[in-house]
Amino acid sequence: MPDPTLFAAVKDPAHRPDPYPLYARLRESPVALQDDGTYVVTTHAALRALVFDPRLSSEDLPDATHPPTGNPFKDWIVNPIKDRIRSRHRPLIFRDPPDHDVLRRHVMREFTAVRVNAMHARVDALVADLLDRKREARQIDLVDDFSYPLPVTVICEMLGVPPEDEARFHGWATQLATALEPDAREDKENRDKNIATFDEIAAYMQDLIKEKRRHPVDDILSGLATGHDPQAGRMGDYDLIATAILLLIAGHETTVNLITNGMLTLLRFPEHLERLRADPEMAPRLIEELLRYEPPVHFRTRKALASIRMDDTTIPEGAPVVLLFASGNRDPARFREPDRFDPDREDIQHFGFGGSLHFCVGAPLARLEAEAALVALARRLKNPRLIDNPPPYRPGASLRGPQHLRLAIEGIA
Amino acid sequence: MAEALRAVVVGASLAGLRGAEALRREGHRGPITLVGDEPHRPYDRPPLSKRVLSGEARPEAIDLPGQAGLDLTWRLGAAAVGLDLPARAVALATGERLPFDRLLIATGTRARPWPNPAEAALSGVFTLRNRDDAAALRAALAAKPARVLIIGAGFIGCEAAAACRSIGLSVTLVDPTPTPLASVLGTRIGRVVAEMLRREGVDYRPETRVEALEGDAAGRVRAARLAGGGRLDAPVVVVALGALRNTEWLAGSGVAADAGGVACDGLCRVLDRAGRPVDGVAAAGDVARFPHPLFPDGPVAFEHWGHAVEQAQHAARTLVGPPEDHGAYAAMPAFWSSQFDLNIKSVGLTNGADAVAVTQGSLAERRFVAVYGRAGRTVAAVSFDSARWLPAYAARIAAGDAFPPILGATDQGRVAPMDPGFPQRPARG
Ligand SMILES: Cc1cc2nc3c(=O)[nH]c(=O)nc-3n(C[C@H](O)[C@H](O)[C@H](O)COP(=O)(O)OP(=O)(O)OC[C@H]3O[C@@H](n4cnc5c(N)ncnc54)[C@H](O)[C@@H]3O)c2cc1C
Ligand code: HEM
């Protein structure tokens, strides 16, 4: 049995730059029980077996946000109703079948390959524009100057957020992305901020959706607001708002991290940076290997609805379960030399986008953005060097990535 | 020494091709001759009752991938007519004899014909097993007949009905059992399929037996006479009555082969009449009958695509390596079927099941997982539009879990074991 405090160490910011040795020790047990009662799923095989176990729930009911006041009218009638309304805004990533599947069908109807591919030229232009602004720079912060602004602009355009409102979305997206970070949700102050932000964005969305219903155009929100599914009918307003917010935030820090981790990794393995510069065709394989080697999402949490028997452990009913995707990605039982960054790997069956019925909806878009970004960075940054290695990391252990990535350069071509 | 060994594979279809491929992978360097009585290179059968009938795929466009680079010698359009074990040679209808050191028997099954040969020979009467059958039936359907009568509501009958509806034809589907797929899924789950067929506009008639087919003077089928007196106009008739194993060519050879298949041991080695493995001779796919560790009632044969692939690979390993090295073939049986928009998938074997329970989803929404129990153990799981969950159930079946397994799923309703309603006759499998 591995040390039952290892996962606590994973969450400790001190280990953010390199959690992988901890994962290796956790993998001594495919399902490692921690002393707080959490079961951490660590090996590729155990993850494969559990991602499609129907007893693992993603339902994550927000706690009641209104503590008792002593006023019976408020405690029993008004606040419970408010809480229930908020809980109805749960997006599909926090919902189970059958509701999940209905919502996902709506999303897939609009988030089509055609729509994603149509963004190609636009993403290239945004990338070029962000780099043009720093032409003469001798130093950039890749996060603030580049990785961060790109995904929000892209998703806002796809959703159909008017350009003049986009700036507000940057702020909202940053705050709300913490709702996807399991630890940040436990922090009371942060949760209050999220609730306030949520109320703001929900009110904004409500109006935007009305507008889209009146004047539908070719964008995702119009499609979701006016569309009709032969089986599921129309999407309710609560679900619509929750979905729109999810699409905004799910692709935010994740894509930022993919681009930033990508550049960080390429600078640590400069021969691959050289190769990418010379041969942009290798980008897709390089990005798959990145999603294995430095995934933007390290783990997701679930709850066991019933006791689940595994080979050497039984997960009891009600236990919290952590799917440690990033550990499965480094499992030597599955990958030869797992700690080597090797874009030429024959088979890269990673869990970078998850692997369950919640498999990332935005994967094609994320790949497209990362490809455009990394190819342009490889070609245009002149003599880039890392200033801090390792760089400072943001607090999240799940959505893990550098807070800043300062690069010394000799201008941008 | 391995260089000079000659391999012969009889049956040039899925199991035969995958077996030849695996022989190469396992290190067989000598010549490999593939013998097939059909004139075609190996092709895929599942599309025949689906996309080929509906016209979405041409019958010539379903070749199996992976035929290049294996350095195979082909004998197509040449049926094997005998096996001479003492001389270790296969006799072909052309008179040729093929000596072998290693032999893989993969002759599969053929469609069970309409029992009256004169009626079966009427033009407009079709079976559906191979590419030529499908091409001929497709041509008949493309001529927009006023009605298609399908006899037999098993998987192929139901899929053919769906394909006909998808191109706007009127379809009547008849079967003597109370529901479609009754022998495989039981009537409880079969009722769900019946409802779907009707909703999709199929004139489905359960508990209906066709007594005879009637032709006109030109030898074209005109109508079907039903037991109990009814009559149905039917310019096109599809006979979908299941399959017969192709073992006749082995008669008198000394290997244990009959209508139930070619008898093998767990390593896929073919057995002789005394039950001893015959050196260097293996069988795989639809034609093979073998003991499976999960099914204690005696040898089984599966008519499933995935099984043909996996068992052929196992058989090739047995032929090349020391057979004891890799243990008995124990792959979990699994098949799928697609009809209309519905995807049905199954793991395990429902044979002899005495209970069925819905553990996820609901029958009413036609999206569910149903598990089958036998004497308190879980033996099979069937999903309707929920295939993603089946691996979890396969693991429970392999572990011999109590029935019903996997309680507490996120989308579980009330779990109430029911009588599966298998008709009183041997189940297919
Ligand atoms: C219409 C149709 C739809 C299907 N759909 C599905 C599905 O959806 N899912 C699923 O799991 N399975 C499906 N199946 C079953 C699947 O196709 C079979 O399990 C698979 O083809 C078995 O492969 P095989 O090689 O063992 O046998 P076969 O494919 O039957 O091949 C045997 C070959 O041997 C040849 N042969 C026979 N006798 C001789 C001889 N004496 N000499 C030389 N050659 C000979 C035959 O002509 C044939 O070409 C379907 C089958 C059919 C017919
Ligand atoms: C590199 C970028 C990205 C990574 C690494 C990533 C990763 C993931 C992962 C691991 C999950 C599974 C969550 C779970 O199992 O609980 C997921 C789900 C999801 N992602 Fe992404 N994502 C990325 C970008 C995006 C983008 C750009 C979008 C949309 C614009 C998006 C939308 C979603 C949605 C909607 C879900 C939930 C799907 C469901 O519940 O069915 N993601 N993502």
Question: Kindly, what is the distance between the CA atoms of the first and last residues of chain A, rounded to a whole number of angstroms?
Answer: 54 Å
What's the pLDDT, averaged over the residues of chain A? 91
Order of helices and strands of chain A: HHEEHEHHHHEHHHHHHHHHHEEEEHHEE
The CATH topology annotation of chain A reads as: Cytochrome p450
CATH fold node name of the largest domain in chain B: FAD/NAD(P)-binding domain
| Residue share in helix of chain B | 10-25%
Number of strands of chain A: 10
**Record field, number of beta strands of chain B:** 28
Give the distance, in angstroms, between the N- and C-terminal Cα atoms of chain B. 40 Å
The first-level CATH class of chain A is given as Mainly Alpha
Organism (chain A): Methylobacterium isbiliense
Pfam families (chain A): p450
Cofactor (chain A): heme
Family (chain A): Belongs to the cytochrome P450 family.
Describe the structure.
The complex is a heterodimer of chains A (413) and B (429). Chain A has a single domain, classed as Orthogonal Bundle (Cytochrome p450). Helices cover 50% and strands 7% of the residues of chain A. Chain A has helices at 6-11, 20-26, 44-51, 72-88, 99-110, 113-118, 120-132, 142-147, 149-159, 166-176, 182-186, 188-214, 220-226, 237-250, 253-268, 270-278, 283-293, 325-328, 363-380, and strands spanning 31-33, 39-41, 56-57, 139-141, 300-304, 308-309, 314-315, 320-323, 385-386, 406-408. The termini of chain A are far apart. Chain B has helices at residues 14-25, 51-54, 117-120, 131-142, 155-166, 182-199, 305-320, 390-398, and strands at residues 7-10, 32-36, 72-76, 80-84, 89-92, 97-99, 102-105, 109-111, 125-126, 148-151, 171-174, 203-205, 210-215, 221-226, 231-233, 236-239, 243-245, 257-258, 261-263, 269-271, 277-283, 288-292, 295-300, 334-339, 342-348, 355-362, 367-374, 377-384. In chain B, helix 1 (14-25) runs parallel beside helix 7. The radius of gyration of chain B is 22 Å and the shape is globular. The model of chain B has no long low-confidence stretch (mean pLDDT 95). Bound molecules: flavin-adenine dinucleotide and protoporphyrin IX containing FE. Flavin-adenine dinucleotide (FAD) binds next to helix 1, strand 2, helix 7 and strand 24 of chain B. Chain B: Residues 335-401 form the Reductase C-terminal domain. Chain B: InterPro entries: FAD-oxidoreductase/Apoptosis, FAD/NAD-bd_sf, FAD/NAD-binding_dom, FAD/NAD-linked_Rdtase_dimer_sf, Reductase_C. Chain B: This is Rhodocoxin reductase.
